[in-house]
Amino acid sequence: MTMTDETLADRVIRLSEEMAFPTTEWEASTLAEVLTLPRVVVTRPSKQYLLSIGMIPYGCHVNCAKYVARDPEHLTRHVCGWIIHGSDLILHSVVERNGGWRCLTPQLVEAPPQFVFIPDPAIEWVETHDGSGREPIRSGNRLPDALRKYPEDHIRMRDRFRELVSSGVSVLDARSMIDATLGAEFSAKPGI
C-alpha cells in the first residue's frame, strides 16, 4: 500500500498498530546484535527526482528491487538493514554501487538528505508460504518493521491512542495528544 492508497488517518492507525507488537527476547537480542554492526551514511536524492523515476513513497523494498533489476551493468545491489529513528531501528532497503549508498524511497514528509544506515547481512528475502510475495527473514524469524529499545512504551501509546479514538476523539487529534504526552516522555529517553 502506498500513501496514495491510504489517508493520513489510515496511516496513523496502521503505524500505531505496527509498532505495538508484543515484546520478545528475540527482539531484544536481535536489537543488541544489530547495534554491533558497522554503519554507513546513505544519501537520499530529492523527492521530486525519485518520484520522476517512478519510485513509490514508502516502498523501499520494492523500489530497490526494481532499480537493481533495471541496472544493465549489474553493479548495483539491494541492501536491507536498519535506519536509526530515535530509540528504534526501522527496517529499510537502500542500494549500494561502487561504495556509494543511496536511498530510493521518496518521503512525503520532509526528511534529511543523508542518514545513518546499518546494513544487515543476516537478512534474507524468502517466498511467503502462500507464494504471494517475499518477506524478510533473519535467523529463521520473520522480521517486524522495527526493532524497539522500549517496546512497552509503543504498546502503552497504542493503547492510549485506541482509548482516545474510542471515546470520540478524531484519529489526528488523538495522535497529537499522544505526541504531546506519552510521546514526549518517550522522546526524552535515551535513543540509540
Task: Tell me what the structure shows.
The protein is of the alpha+beta class and 192 residues long. The protein is 36% helix and 25% strand. It is built from 7 helices and 9 strands; from the N terminus they run ααβααββββββββααα. Strands 1, 2, 3, 4, 5 and 9 form a 6-stranded antiparallel β-sheet that branches. Helix 5 packs across helix 6. It starts with 7 loop residues before the first helix and ends in a 5-residue tail after the last helix.
What structural class do you assign from the helix and strand content? alpha+beta
Rg from alpha-carbon coordinates: 18 Å
Please give the largest β-sheet.
6 strands, antiparallel
Instruction: State the helix count.
Output: 7
Q: Which blocks of ≥5 consecutive residues have pLDDT under 50? A: none
Report strand %.
Answer: 25-35%
- First-residue to last-residue Cα separation: 29 Å
**What proportion of the residues is helical, as a percent range?**
25-40%
Order of helices and strands: HHEHHEEEEEEEEHHH
Number of strands: 9
| Overall outline | globular
Q: Give the quaternary arrangement of the chains.
A: single chain
Report the mean per-residue pLDDT as an integer. Answer: 92
